Amino acid sequence: MGILIDKTPDCPYVNFSELGLLEIEGRSITEDAYSFWQPLIDWIKQYIKAPALQTKVIVFLEYTNSSSNKYLNEMMNLFDLCAANGNNVEIVWRYEEDDESILVLGQDLNSLTNINFNFDEVATKRHNLKKIRVRNKKSGNEAEITMRYWDAILRNGHGDNYLIVDEL
Length: 168
What we know:
Blueprint: E1 3-5, E2 13-16, E3 21-28, H1 33-47, E4 54-64, H2 66-84, E5 88-96, H3 100-111, E6 118-122, H4 126-129, E7 131-136, E8 142-146, H5 147-155, E9 162-167
Parallel strand pairs: 3-4, 4-5, 5-6
Antiparallel strand pairs: 1-2, 2-3, 7-8, 7-9
Helix pairs in contact: 1-2
């Protein structure tokens, strides 16, 4: 049986199918990384004992913390083991065109395996690049930020702390 987990503000969407398509998408900033990631690691350990003819892993992270990175590394090591046993494993590492940190994370993980990752740059939405000026309601400080950053503020529940002063 596969795994299906809905995306939350702290945890990514996960869809692992025993048919060989494994997807992770979103943010991984959970405080309890073990409770989220360990069941996925355990599932992969079982999966690689008898994998599908083709295993395709698609990772599209928006943001991840160091605790999650540890589990991503462990996960990639398991896929590397699967490939070393003669199985067909493809890793697609998707990242937004302006997100160098996620690209570098993928490159770092790639360098630790013998699997050649396919890097897929995703065009950033124009909305994300649009800039606004916001004012912190408590301190009065103003800042110019992108809509992408504003969306993150809203997702994290901090939108009430700011006032949009101007759209640039």
